[in-house]
TrEMBL record:
InterPro entries: Leu-rich_rpt, Leu-rich_rpt_typical-subtyp, LRR_dom_sf, LRR_domain-containing. This is Leucine-rich repeat domain-containing protein. It comes from marine sediment metagenome. Gene3D superfamilies: Ribonuclease Inhibitor. Keywords: Leucine-rich repeat, Repeat.
Length: 297
């Protein structure tokens, strides 16, 4: 058996450390050790093999490379262009240039990702596509149009970026399920938001919205909507179309009268209101045992 192992190692060496000739659990640690003691051939082979296996996209292989921290041996572009399709790698690189964020420090993978324990200024990758993008506290001011090229995005978090508006092209991101534009200075939402038919959660807290577009009522799958601390005084009648809405945070606005359209939201389970600027809640809603209404000062 020992002679067999030696023979395998000899063949492996003669083929420039091709790790396909040894099981990865043996080849990778050996290449790592050889790299650390200064074997330049091993170092090159090590990086090539890491990149090759990342490029395969197999979840178990990628998981192994992450857990054992082999991806730390790759440079920034090597990492991005092996983890993502070329077009999306270019988008991430351009976003880095716009924002001075270095996403390679906070790359996560769906196989390891808890959607409630996310990192700020990070991306989440699945099958060589970005499925989640988080940009936080970066002074962008303008919505980065190139984001709309990330067509597999499911979650988009753009918070505290001083954004004044959202591009009409956001309607192209029709895989989105969760969007958070909180703590910007947005005054208006684009009508193209109606195209986000998979959207389940929309957070718009602490912006400068004076009204909500009629188009919002087309989001049949929307379950949560947060419009806390804006300047909204009315709710559009099209809200009757929000058949799946369960939670609505609307305190901190300027409603002159209670939005009666809310009485028609059959699945609404939670509603937050401000004490000082909302007239009396209709009895139909007050007596609804399935609806929790909270008042905040």
């Amino acid at each position: 058996e020992f002679i067999g192992h030696c023979s395998n190692l000899q063949v492996w060496y003669e083929h420039d450390y091709d790790s396909r000739l040894l099981h990865r659990n043996l080849a990778f640690p050996l290449l790592k050790q050889l790299t650390e003691i200064g074997d330049h051939l091993a170092k090159r082979a090590f990086r090539e093999e890491i990149a090759k296996r990342l490029n395969s996209g197999y979840p178990s292989v990628v998981n192994y490379l992450i857990e054992e921290k082999y991806i730390d041996y790759l440079g920034r572009d090597e990492l991005l262009f092996n983890l993502l399709i070329h077009e999306e790698a270019e988008v991430i690189r351009e976003l880095e240039q716009l924002s001075n964020i270095k996403f390679e420090k906070s790359i996560q993978f769906e196989i390891l990702y808890d959607f409630e324990e996310y990192k700020r200024n990070s991306i989440v990758i699945k099958n060589k596509h970005v499925i989640r993008l988080d940009m936080y506290k970066v002074n962008l001011r303008q919505f980065p149009e190139i984001i709309t090229q990330l067509s597999y995005l499911k979650e988009l978090f753009l918070r505290k970026l001083r954004l004044k508006s959202i591009s009409e092209n956001i309607g192209e991101l029709n895989s989105l399920e969760r969007v958070d534009f909180s703590y910007n200075i947005i005054e208006k939402l684009p009508d193209s938001i109606r195209n986000l038919q998979n959207l389940k959660k929309l957070y718009l807290e602490n912006n400068r919205l004076y009204f909500l577009p009629q188009a919002l009522g087309d989001l049949k799958n929307l379950q949560e909507l947060n419009i806390i601390d804006n300047k909204i005084s009315t709710i559009p009648e099209t809200f009757i179309g929000l058949l799946s809405l369960e939670e609505l945070w609307m305190r901190g606005n300027y409603f002159e009268k209670f939005p009666v359209v809310l009485e028609n939201l059959k699945n609404l389970k939670y509603l937050s209101l401000s004490v000082e600027n909302v007239p009396k809640v209709p009895p139909k809603m007050e007596n609804n045992k399935n609806l929790s209404i909270r008042f905040y000062s």
